Amino acid sequence: MSRLNYGSAKIISVAKEKDFIRAGPIYTMKNKTIHHGICNGDSGAGLQGFVKQRVFLLGIHSFGPKVCYEGSPFTVTDTRPYAQLICNLTGICYHLSSLT
Question: How crowded is residue 74: how many other Cβ atoms within 10 Å of its Cβ?
């Protein structure tokens, strides 16, 4: 049986010199809110954002703490600087600034 969970996260910071986004987890499961971060083995998971009721990939999970604990923040690689490359390679094209 699959145990796919989803949640939401609050952006803590965006590193300008490196393409990283730090986020803190806020997951909602079974009508209750729990705080648990992304753990080892979750690399490649996506961080999605919503703009005008559309979903966009903002980042891909890169690394986090070696030991997962309640409320642990995580780091994703910011995909926005690579939007044009993704567009060229896949044909999936968007630019967030045109939607805001």
Answer: 24
Spans of the chain below 50 pLDDT: 1, 100
Per the listing, tokens 């079974």 go with: 30
CA distance 60 to 63: 9
Whether the predicted model's global pTM rises above the 0.85 cut: no
The pLDDT assigned to 89 comes to: 94
Task: Give the three-class secondary structure for 13.
Answer: strand
Domain locations in the chain as residue ranges: 8-98
Tell me what pLDDT residue 27 has: 54
CATH superfamily of 8-98: Trypsin-like serine proteases (2.40.10.10)
Rounded to 10 degrees, the C-alpha dihedral 55/4/81/74 comes to 120
